[in-house]
Specification:
Blueprint (H helix, E strand, L loop, with lengths): L65 H11 L13 H14 L7 H20 L8 H20 L6 H10 L5 H5 L31 H12 L2 H10 L6 H13 L6 H20 L3 H8 L2 H18 L6 H20 L3 H23 L12 H10 L2 H5 L7 H16 L5 H9 L6 H14 L5 H17 L2 H14 L7 H15 L5 H17 L5 H17 L4 H13 L20 H12 L1 H22 L16 H18 L6 H13 L4 H14 L11 H7 L11 H17 L3 E4 L2 E4 L7 H10 L2 H15 L10 H29 L2 H26 L11 H4 L10
Antiparallel strand pairs: 1-2
Helix pairs in contact: 1-2, 1-3, 2-3, 2-4, 3-5, 4-5, 4-7, 5-9, 8-10, 9-12, 10-12, 12-13, 12-14, 13-14, 14-17, 17-19, 18-20, 19-21, 20-22, 21-22, 21-23, 22-23, 23-25, 24-25, 25-28, 27-28, 27-29, 28-30, 29-30, 30-32, 32-34, 33-34, 34-36, 35-36
């Protein structure tokens, strides 16, 4: 918006000045201030007013310049507002008229005057004294604003004794040295102070604070206030028997607390020192109920603080008042303490605000390079001592901790106490106890608070805090432990030197090891452990991870806490990235460690694969003993006195071994392969053990094998081919399939070709075992074996194509020989009436016939053209039509 000043000075035309956009608009009070517009008259004198004009008939409204009021309202409320401040302008005319009515106590009977005070007066002076546009106005306009402000001072003095808040607020604006008007005109000389002659301070109420920035116009306004007997009226108001309140005291003292620097010591001594004593006495006698009532509203409580601050500023201007200043400082702290002890939430909030203001003030003076004369009595040391002596922290921690804004203010106090090294271990206990067993909101807020403060704790305080954690952990519920774990993890975030992370990692380790901790909570503790290692900002973070891996390997060697240790080793290794696909060992960087490097290092250092394989074997021995003592034990149920089931114990060890082999690019060697096969497949405790073994070795022999190729044949012949075929499952035949093809391929007997393997040598390793599986395996396994047998012998390689007829005859003859031998066996069994054995032999005969059928049918289907001898699949479906040739 645009600011403009308009009026008609004597002998001149209209004057206006454009201001900057963005002027503020502040609504005035409903009350009306009195003022005598004539500068030559003292407020309250009544000179120049006819006696008969002081009286009006009852109910009659006194005259008021309505047209000027209408124009003023229109001008100040436009987007490009205008405040008429030149002589004889609307503002001056309205001030004169309003002052006249107020002097005669008739302003209350004029609705127009009331409207002027409600809107026009406050808005006008707020704009011309505080708007950013002030700096753009010419000197004559500034002078006119000054003249109008002098009239405002007269108006304020005239009604000073009436506790009229709107005018007292305007007085505070007019005498504020930091308002835009006084800042811009701060270099103006004072008209009320003669620069040539040395005037007695007793004759002045205000003097310029220094020659560089005299603030002369502000000095003139204060001297004008004094010359109109304003200070006398002020002193009389506090000396009278009329009731005081915090709001009234604040409104009267605020203007002088702002401009204290220009008041002369004599003025303060004469008028304000008595007021200081009276105000302290009044506030000290406030009951708790009265104080609580005053503190319900934050603005009122801010008034309480402002009062004491104003008194201190005024007293500081008088020589030899150090004891009085000390008294005021201690009184301020006393009032803050009283506010803290009342139940009102607003009162506590405001008291915390006050403490933080005190802290900010003493912190400022601590760091400010001030002279000895300027040194404040209330130092950071004294404030910290006051907090400790009065147990302020204990009071603050009693309630309201569910409010985040309350805890935020508490945090500032705690930071100050920590900085001053006065936070005791008892205080830490109180902080921790404040959330134990409380609502989630309180727990969260206190935990957040501790997470922020922990970095400032001394080593002793941090150790004590961790003791608090451990003591709470013992009796905490699952949910409380989850919250505690989250707090502990947060403490180690952004740790650059590793000290905090080291402590937190050790704490999590200890908490997770406790036997009474539920498994899910233990897992959360271990997950937090991993996150801390992952997010660590320490320069030796890789070395830190390896140190923890070594600790977990020690657990493994001692056969304690095995599964969590395996999980942690794996998770820590996964924190190291995988090497790029085109990475070679010659490109290794000393500053970059990849996952396979770490696993290889662990294998070299600890023989980790060997340790885990031996541990698995040892566990199976103990599981065998436990199963013997508990025949009905379910392998899927938790083991007695353990966190895990038997299935988990086996699976986790196998998963970890596969991780080492796959991610570490390691080969599983013969001793460990034999050890694992023996304890799980040959000497299994439960069926699940053998099944897990089959699956694991099948995965080991996948597209990227992890078993040393040099030992495949020996392992196949010494272990798999010696296993009872009846023990094979579907996963078992799958395992056999992979070893069978891998071994024969390596020996040159099979050649991989797209989706099939071509047979190059009829003497396959494992061929006879495959026939045993067909004859002695379960139905599902036998069907898989028949399919493998058919697939193998119906995919002849190039070298065997020429011998196809001989191969057919040999294969068919082999089947017939088996059938003949089985038939003879059945004939013998019939004589002994061994029905069960007869059924078994006939079942085996059926399987051989199935092999023969599948073999012949596979070749039969290869010939798709019509032929004289129909294929077997169609031979029984003929309707008597035959080819003519």
């Amino acid at each position: 918006m645009t600011v403009a000043m308009r009026g008609n000075p004597p002998g001149g035309g209209e004057a206006s000045t454009d201001g900057q956009p963005g002027g503020d608009s502040v609504q005035s009070s409903n009350q009306t201030p009195p003022a005598q517009p004539q500068e030559q008259q003292a407020a309250g004198s009544g000179e120049g007013l006819p006696e008969e004009n002081n009286e009006l008939p009852e109910g009659e409204e006194p005259p008021f310049p309505h047209d000027e009021l209408a124009r003023l309202d229109d001008m100040i409320n436009k987007p490009r507002w205008v405040v008429p401040v030149l002589p004889k302008g609307e503002l001056e005319i309205l001030l004169d008229a309003a002052t006249d009515l107020c002097r005669r106590n008739l302003d209350g009977r004029s609705e127009a005057c009331q409207r002027f005070f409600r809107d026009g007066l406050t808005i006008s002076f707020t704009k011309i004294l505080t708007d950013e546009a002030v700096s753009g106005w010419k000197f004559e306009i500034q002078r006119c604003i000054m003249k109008n402000t002098e009239r405002l001072i007269e108006l304020c003095v005239a009604k000073l004794a009436d506790d009229w808040f709107p005018l007292l607020d305007l007085l505070a604006i007019a005498l504020n040295p930091l308002c835009k008007f006084h800042i811009y005109n701060g270099n103006r000389a004072a008209d009320s102070v003669s620069s040539g002659a040395q005037m007695n301070n007793n004759d002045l109420y205000a003097r310029p604070p220094d020659s560089r920035t005299p603030k002369g116009w502000l000095v003139d306004l204060v001297n004008r206030f004094g010359s109109l007997k304003g200070f006398d009226t002020l002193a009389e108001r506090f000396d009278s028997d009329r009731t005081l309140s915090v709001s009234v005291i604040h409104a009267y003292l605020k203007p002088w607390g702002q401009c204290f620097e220009i008041l002369t010591p004599n003025t303060i001594q004469k008028y304000f020192m008595v007021i200081v004593d009276r105000v302290i006495h009044f506030l000290d006698l406030l009951s708790d109920e009265e104080l609580k009532k005053e503190s319900k509203n934050e603005a009122k409580n801010d008034a309480l603080s402002s009062i004491i601050k104003s008194l201190k500023n005024l007293v500081a201007r008088v020589p030899d008042t150090e004891e009085k200043i000390k008294t005021l400082e201690m009184f301020r702290l006393k009032m803050i303490l009283r506010l803290l002890q009342i139940s009102s939430f607003n009162g506590k909030m405001n008291a915390l605000n006050e403490i933080n203001k005190v802290i900010a003030n003493v912190s400022y003076y601590t760091h400010k390079h001030s002279t000895v004369e300027e040194e404040e009595w209330l130092t950071a040391e004294r404030v910290a001592e006051w907090i400790q002596e009065n147990k302020v922290l204990s009071i603050v921690l009693r309630d309201s901790l569910h409010q985040p804004q309350y805890v935020e203010k508490l945090e500032k106090i705690l930071r100050f106490v920590i900085k001053e090294k006065t936070l005791t271990l008892e205080d830490l206990d109180n902080i921790w106890a404040a959330q134990v067993g409380k609502h989630e909101a309180i727990v969260k807020n206190v935990h957040d608070l501790l997470a922020k403060l922990a970095w400032d704790f001394s080593p002793e305080q941090l150790d004590h805090l961790f003791i608090c954690f451990q003591e709470s952990w013992a009796n905490a519920t699952t949910k409380q432990r989850e919250k505690l774990l989250e707090l502990i993890r947060r403490l180690a975030e952004d740790d650059k030197d590793g000290v905090m992370a080291h402590k937190v990692l050790g704490l999590l380790w200890n908490l997770a090891h406790q036997e009474d901790v539920p498994t899910d909570i233990m897992d959360q503790a271990l997950n937090a452990h991993i996150k801390i290692l992952d997010y660590s900002c320490s320069q030796d973070r890789d070395a830190q991870k390896i140190r923890w891996i070594d600790r977990f390997v020690d657990e493994l060697k001692n056969d304690k806490w095995v599964l969590p240790a395996l999980k942690q080793i794996k998770e820590i290794c996964c924190l190291f990235g995988e090497a790029p696909q085109n990475h070679s060992h010659s490109q290794r960087s000393p500053h970059m460690q990849y996952r396979h490097d770490i696993i290889s290092m662990l294998q070299t250092k600890h023989s980790l694969v060997t340790i885990v394989a031996e541990n698995l074997s040892q566990y199976m021995n103990s599981a065998r003993q436990m199963a013997a003592g508990n025949p009905g034990l379910d392998p899927h149920s938790l083991l007695p006195g353990d966190r895990y089931s038997h299935v988990q114990q086996v699976q986790e060890r196998l998963h970890f071994l596969r991780f080492l082999l796959k991610d570490g690019q390691l080969w599983l060697c013969a001793p460990q392969a034999k050890q694992i096969w023996t304890c799980l497949a040959e000497n299994s405790v439960y069926v699940t053990d053998r099944e897990a073994c089959f699956k694991w070795f099948s995965k080991l022999m996948g597209e990227d094998p992890d078993l040393d190729p040099e030992i495949n044949k020996e392992f196949f012949e010494s272990n798999i081919l010696r296993l009872d075929p009846g023990l094979l499952t579907e996963n078992g035949i799958k395992c056999f399939d992979r070893f069978f093809k891998a071994v024969n391929t390596k020996e040159g007997k099979l050649t991989p070709k797209r989706r099939a393997y071509l047979i190059e040598d009829l003497e396959l390793i494992g061929q006879q075992y495959l026939w045993r599986v067909v004859l002695f395996g379960s139905d599902e396994v036998a069907n898989k074996a028949i399919e493998l047998l058919k697939e193998t012998y119906t995919n002849l390689g190039p070298k065997l194509q020429s011998s196809q007829v001989d191969i057919h005859e040999d294969f068919i003859q082999s089947c017939m020989d088996r059938l003949r031998a089985m038939f003879d066996t059945v004939q013998v069994l019939k004589k002994d009436t061994e029905e069960k054995k007869i059924q078994q032999e006939t079942m085996r005969m059926t399987r051989v016939l199935t092999v023969l059928r599948e073999y012949i049918n596979e070749y039969d289907q290869d010939h798709s053209e019509e032929r004289a001898i129909l294929p077997m699949s169609r031979n029984g479906q003929s309707k008597g039509k035959f080819p003519t040739h």
